Amino acid sequence: MFQDAGAFVAQGMHFNVSGSTWRTPCKTIALAAAVMAAGCAVSVPAHIQPISHFDAARYAGTWYEIARIDHRFEKGLINTSASYALNGDGTLKVINRGFNPETKEWKQVEGKARFLGDSSVAALKVSFFGPFYGGYNVVSLDEQYQTAVVIGQDARYFWLLSRSKTMPAEQMHRLLQKAQAMQVDLNRVILVQQD
After folding, report:
1. 86, 133, 144, 181: most buried by Cβ count inside 10 Å?
2. Inter-residue long-range contacts of 106-114, CB under 8 Å, 24+ positions, other chains counted
C-alpha cells in the first residue's frame, strides 16, 4: 500500500522510494522483470508457417524423435519421445522422455503447451520451467497425423517426429528437404537412435 508519494509499505517494512537506497533494488527488479517478460514472449519465426486446420485431439499421444538438432536439454539422449494429452483448459500436457546410455537412466520432464492464438493453428509455446516458454510450431503434418516437422522459436530448434520408431529413408529425406527450405541447417541435424 502507498502511504504517500515518497514512501512504500510492504509486509510491515517501510522503504523510502525517493532515496538512493531504493533506486538500485528498483533497477534490479525492473531488469529481472524485463528478463522474465522476454522469457515469456514467444512468436512464430517470420520464415515459417505453422499448419492450419490443426486438431490437437488427433495430435495427442506419443511421438518418437527420428531426427533433431541436439541441445543441452536432450544432448546424448536416445529413444526420445514426446507424449501429449489435452487438458480441460485447452492446453496440452507434454511429457518428454529419453534414455541416457552413459548413465543407463531415463530422463523425463513434464511441461505444458499453450496455443499462441487460435487452436486450429499449430503455433504453440511450451514451458518446462515456470514462466519461461519456447516456441513449438508444427510446420508439416501428414493427413493421418503420423509424421510431423516441428520448428521452435527459430530454425536452430528442429524435430522430425513419427508415430513409429522408424521412418522410410525416402520419406525422411523429403521431410528434411522441407525443413531445409525453412532454414534448418541439416549439417546440425542428428538421427536419433530408437530401439
Report:
1. 133
2. 107/77, 109/73, 112/87, 113/84, 114/90
- Which candidate, 61, 62, 77, 51, places its Cα nearest to that of 136? 51
Measured CA to CA, the distance from residue 75 to residue 165 in angstroms comes to 19
- Residue 76's alpha-carbon distances to 26, 68, 70, 127, 128, in angstroms, are 42, 11, 8, 21, 19
Q: Is 135 buried (19+), middle (13-18) or exposed (0-12) by CB count in 10 A?
A: buried
Residues 6+ apart with CB under 8 A from 74: 68, 80, 96, 98
